[in-house]
Amino acid sequence: MKSFVPEGGIINSEENLGYLASTAALLKAKGLGKILEYRAESCSPSHDLVLNLPACRAVIPREECALGVAEGKTRDIAIISRVGKPVAFEVSEVIEDGGAPLAILSRTSAQRRCMDEYLLGLEPGSVIDAAVTHIEQFGCFVDIGCGVSSMIPIDSISVSRISHPSDRFSVGDRIKAILKGYDGEKFYLSHKELLGTWEQNAGRFHAGETVRGVVRSIEPYGIFIELAPNLAGLAEPRDDVFAGQTASVYVKSINPEKMKIKLIIVDTYDCEPDRGCEYFITEGVIKRWRYSPKDCQKVIESVF
Q1: Could you give the residue range(s) of every CATH 2.40.50.140 domain in the chain?
Q2: Where are the alpha helices (DSSP H) in 45-137?
Q3: Distance in angstroms (rounded) separating the CA atoms of residues 37 and 283
Q4: Are 63 and 105 spatial neighbours (Cβ–Cβ below 8 Å)?
Q5: Which of 184, 120, 182, 187 shows the shortest CA–CA distance to 152?
Q6: 12-52 pLDDT, tens per residue?
């Protein structure tokens, strides 16, 4: 069972459920230093998280609910928002409470271990697992292990421009990300480098075929149609087309030297677009990534 994964990643695993089944198993997990997961049932008036484990009732004291709470760097909304969701934790102790066993847990301990034993040992450019937890206009917040939070800025989500991160992601999505660096307080992430170069994406399309795309922006000189998260083409202006619509488009030409794809809009219609991302890279470490073709005068690349 992997220990340092975004919350929810091990909650249904056989090993995790086994350690939650009895107080003896919980104490065994404590002795082995196991990180476990279960869903938070409620939050007390004093902002302790309450869990009804299969073995017994359990509590995560407020200051053990998240890194930074004790220091005042993390607000209590970060605790309240975990109700109904999986939380990672280590078992601190099992005590008697009114004649019944009560497990005292620590999410902070699990997060600190995730930082020390996993995240801080990663190189810039490392491809990691993440889970989308919250979406704002400027980017999406993700869990990169045991509830440790980071953010992917909107301009790092994909090469194809989007008006809002919800155009690409939904809360709960399990995604991949690239670690750009750590400044002592925050982890910095990117995502677009995993979605393929211009050539990799353009190679899936051919002049003369008609395909589906998403209208991303309307400009005076043309309409940008997203064919893939890292690829967009330009169609001539039309008055009856709106951003967010799905379009069937005729591929008129593909020009690698200028990174241009000319399109003709055949039809548009309202349809919920696909939000899934196809990853060309899913593991390892990326040191340099070039989006633009070799013969293209314009160079678009990332260096980690």
Answers
A1: 14-115, 116-195, 198-269
A2: 77-80, 107-117
A3: 25
A4: no
A5: 187
A6: 999 999 999 999 999 999 999 999 999 999 999 999 999 99
**Whole-prediction pTM:** 0.92
210: phi then psi, degrees, rounded to nearest 5: -115, 130
Within 8 A by CB and 6+ apart from 56, the residues are 23, 26, 94, 100, 101, 102, 103
Rounded Cα distance, 106 and 222, in Å: 55
CATH architecture for segment(s) 14-115: Beta Barrel (2.40)
Q: How far is CA 120 from CA 71, 184, 194, in A?
A: 21, 10, 21
Quick: pLDDT tens for 260-296. Answer: 999 999 999 887 767 778 999 999 999 999 999 998 9
d(CA 106, CA 176): 27
Q: State the CATH class of domain 198-269.
A: mainly beta
Q: What is the DSSP letter of 163?
A: S
Amino acid identity at 191: H
Cβ contacts of residue 125 below 8 Å, gap of 6+?
Answer: 178, 179, 180, 285, 286, 287, 304
Domain 116-195 has CATH 3.20.20.70: no
